[in-house]
Write a structure and sequence with these properties.
Number of strands: 3
CATH class: Alpha Beta
Structural class: mainly alpha
Order of helices and strands: HEEHHEHHH
CATH topology: rbstp2171
Radius of gyration: 15 Å
Strand content: 5-15%
Distance between the termini: 46 Å
Number of helices: 6
Length: 115
């Protein structure tokens, strides 16, 4: 029997934060299991910054980096700017993990690279 609206909304379908070892930092970070809202925030950021120089890796990191309880560490545009000044290798490691978590396609990456 198909789920009712109440049953669907009651599902505990999010995984606990994922531990990621960032080799460039020699430290661990937590990444959120993304919600549809996080994916939408990512897509809105991409659309708003199409054709512009944007901090793609820093934005994705800001959407996913969290504490052990799943509370986001970075929530503002200023945070994205500050994250953009961090080590490129470290943010790239987070970027690669984030691509998998958000199911970002190769076509979407190609579009970002064009801009």
């Amino acid at each position: 029997m198909p789920l009712t609206a109440d049953e669907l909304l009651a599902l505990d379908d999010l995984k606990p934060p994922m531990l990621l070892h960032v080799k460039a930092w020699g430290k661990d970070v937590y990444l959120l299991d993304p919600t549809a809202d996080i994916r939408d925030d990512w897509e809105i950021y991409c659309a708003a910054n199409q054709g512009k120089r944007a901090s793609w890796r820093a934005k994705l990191a800001s959407l996913l980096l969290c504490d052990a309880d799943g509370k986001r560490l970075f929530t503002s545009d200023a945070d994205v700017v500050r994250l953009g000044k961090k080590n490129a290798k470290a943010l790239h490691e987070i970027w690669l993990a984030g691509q998998k978590l958000l199911m970002i396609t190769d076509e979407e990456i190609e579009e970002l690279e064009k801009n």
